[in-house]
Amino acid sequence: MLAIRVHQPGGAESMRVEELPTPAPGPGEALVRIEACGVNFIDVYQRSGQYKVPLPARLGLEGAGFVEGVGAGVAAVKPGDRVAWANLPGSYATHAALSADRLVPVPAGLDARTAAAVMLQGMTAHYLATSTFPLRPGHTCLVHAAAGGVGLLLCQIASRAGARVIGTASGDKAGLAREAGAAEVIDYTRTDFSTQVKGLDVVYDSVGRDTFAKSLRCLRPRGMLVLYGQSSGAVEPFDPQLLSQGGSLFLTRPTLAHYTATRDELLARSADLFRWIANGELRVRVGATFALADAARAHEALEARRTTGKVLLLP
What we know:
The chain is α/β, with parallel strands linked by helices. The protein has ten helices and 16 strands. The chain has two domains: 2-118 and 285-314, Quinone Oxidoreductase, Chain A, domain 1; 121-256, Rossmann fold (3-Layer(aba) Sandwich), CATH 3.40.50.
């Protein structure tokens, strides 16, 4: 098998394509041949050392493929099943031995690229809009990076819930955010968004350092800032008194693992997404695909914000 590994944290060039023994599935595991795997900012954080992982590290946390074999005690899947997953390391590869109870069935008619594209980012958008701050008609939300992978899905799910969506995006990407349901799009490269919108119920912020303070200023009293990423860097330490001064604001830093902690929750979120896709209620945009050997190019494009929608590697 082939896999991308990092031996020391660094830039995109630190990733290597290596030939490794194809693993046999252990107890509770399934061996999956990977057809598509997703590229996400968390992969960048792990590669660069922002998030510490044991070295050498196999990158990649989501993908889709089919089961080639199962280990002892596996009942959730069987050889030949088409499956997808998120938050399982080692997905930048041709094969992976994965925990079988974290695999979800891919319905007939849904291709591997779409299934891989919607797992981590789609379930993130799902829990943000349905659980962290459950959106309802009458709510107004701000979605940062609205033309990105999570952003395009979050705009659609928020609009589906009846909320009014305002997005931020660079000028050439604004049209994509509008197509995804944003009623207004603010070009953050030209305009200070915090002077344009006030009294918001919730801000979904994946940017971090560059937007954090301004996002707080956009909220209504007792509004919520949902900080779920840090593409511009980690937020600097701040005085919690700012939350009081802003109107008893709420701040949360959620992560997908805590919102898919049980298999029932994992299956429910993925089933919602797959159903919405099948019904035409959710459109998944794959913005770029790369060969496994070109993983460095994929990271460079993502970090430079040259991509829209989902970035995939195709082993």
